[in-house]
Write a structure and sequence with these properties.
The complex is a heterodimer. Chain A has helices spanning 35-44, 58-65, 72-83, 123-132, 137-145, 158-170, 175-197, 213-223, 236-251; strands at 2-8, 12-19, 22-30, 50-54, 89-93, 98-103, 109-114, 203-206, 227-228. By secondary structure, chain A is of the alpha/beta class. Chain A has 2 domains: 1-84 and 232-253, ATPase, nucleotide binding domain (Nucleotidyltransferase, domain 5, 2-Layer Sandwich); 88-229, Nucleotidyltransferase, domain 5 (2-Layer Sandwich), CATH 3.30.420.40. A 5-stranded mixed beta sheet of chain A has the order 7-6-5-8-9. In chain A, strands 3-2-1-4 form a 4-stranded mixed beta sheet. Chain B has a domain at 203-319 and 327-332 and 342-423: Rossmann fold. The chains are: A alpha/beta, B alpha/beta. At the A-B interface, helix 3 and strand 7 of A face helix 19 of B.
Amino acid sequence: MKNAGIDIGSRSIELVIIEDNNVIFQKQTESGYNPIERVKELTSNVQFDSIMATGYGRGIVEVAFDYPTITEIKAYGAGATALHKGIRGILDIGGQDTKVITLNENGKVLKFEMNDKCAAGTGKFLEMMATTLGYTPETFGQAALSGNSGIEINSMCAVFAESEVTSLLAKGCNRQDIALAIHQSVCRRAVGMIRRQNISSPIMFAGGVANNSCMVQLLQKALGSEVIIPKQPQFVGAYGAAILSSVTAVVGI
Amino acid sequence: MADYTQMWSELGLDNDNHNALLENLGGAYQSIFMTQKSRPQGMGYFDFVMSEAHGLRIQELRDEQAAGRKIIGSFCVFVPEEIILALGCTSVGLCAGADFAQEEVEKVLPRNTCSLIKSFFGFKLGKVCPYMEVSDLIVGENTCDGKKKSFEIYSQMVPNFYQMDLPQTKNGGAKPMLKNEFTAFISKLEQMTGNTLTFESLKQGIDTVNAKRKALLRLSNLRAANPAPISGLDALLINQMAFLDNPIRFTEKVNALCDELETIIASKEGAKTVNAPRVIISGCPMAIPNWKLPAIIESTGAVIVGEESCIGERGQRNVTADTATTVDGLIDAIVDRYINIDCAVFTPNQERVDHIQEMVKNYNADGVIHYGLQFCQPYIMESFSVEKELENKGIPVIRIETDYSQEDMGQLSTRVEAFIEIIK
């Protein structure tokens, strides 16, 4: 049986298809301005017996295609547990959300925390800061790794942080150093959320921002505990949805 | 609805603004309330009151005024309705549940003020609240700092403002202080109306308000049944109407609805399925038409079985003892009743956390959704200790912080749905 999971995020959409718990297909595309069209394109030439949608845009596909849905929280919980048995917590920094999820020893979600409605500390925040400093999101982490510590970015609001960065540039600060400071500020916030939940080790870092090498290094250093980075962190949600789809397909709900 | 344009003009409402508000309200009401399945028939009355909230009900208040009654508008459950009724006046809750005329509001208030305060400024500046305009006296109470300081500004905008002070603790000095304030309020109303507070009139005021509270308590207790006989949205609406409707008629209608709910329970039917996750909402009050969070919660299939809120059980539980034999004794009883309200402006406030746990137990709830209005210092600060204590007792809890805007609907839905997935 082929079970699909689709994660419709604010920045990107991921589709994963599994068969007997093995991934047989996966693809990512940008969400763009018409996510329904994107979902159609993504699912048009592939075969699956059941599907489960998750992510910010799950509601629209529930209406458009009658897909069953679950929240990203549950999807990440299922995906992370399937990838690494015994995982006890997840940090997911996505396009517009930062989430910290506590799991019990069986992978059940016990508790979670999400950032408030602004973009503070999210992937979108990093992307905006990268643009201000003239980097692409892909090169931003690498550039930050070559920076020196010492500068502190205090503002977590994307708008205020931008003016903070602009005034640092005007002072003649090195842009790599500022890049590092921005990563440090996002890391501090994420670590704060993790500490508040008192999560046991190991913790998985998932979501698109887990591809950023500087964030990974800073997080490992700050937590001092085991941080698992999946090979393709942006697919964890879709993978989890596919697994949950296979479970409900078997049970026949 | 009949044509009330002339009445609204006479009250000084801005017709364009007011029409825009009514249109919005009507649309929201339709999509949130009228699409619910399995509603009790008794809700028809409350639908009607809601549809006539700015029409017939205002007409009634104006008729009362013509017959010599005074209308007392207020923002808080600390303003004693017993006393208002006893002095031949009518009590109404003022509008504070939606954003309006935000740009105008931000000219006079800091941006980082809670939505509730901004709302009543917006309703005043946009000239869209008939209750504010029909009121002969507007009572502002010193609860949180936000309200207290904003009333300094608001009182310049209305010709008939009266300020009531409140204690911040419940130590020995609190009751004499509250009694002092209630006595001053009595003098103010006596002077306004020319009436004198008598034992009989106060006793009758107490009886009327107690009957209303008992009816609402009866409604609360019926929600303990599984399946819940009424949706949380409908129950919230009834609690919101308690501040607008004629108290005697309202009490009759709530009791009639409760009779119907008893039949529904006996037939094992209900507003939601027997498996619906059950939650208590706790925190800031949800004034009309603030239905955002309850609508999200119940759209997930969960059912709200209690509101630990001023517009809900915090405001309505506990009746006033009616056994005293003198006016002074009755006033003491009123003070005793009101001092027990466990608003987060009090410190310490352990009673509130205890009450939340009591509600979880009494109404067979699976979890608590703590609702804090952004920038509401008392409730948001208290939410941390509430969360901690509930977690220690093994009660699932989530803290939600939001305002009256619609822009965080997506994120709120995700949080609420994920919480419901956890407690399922």
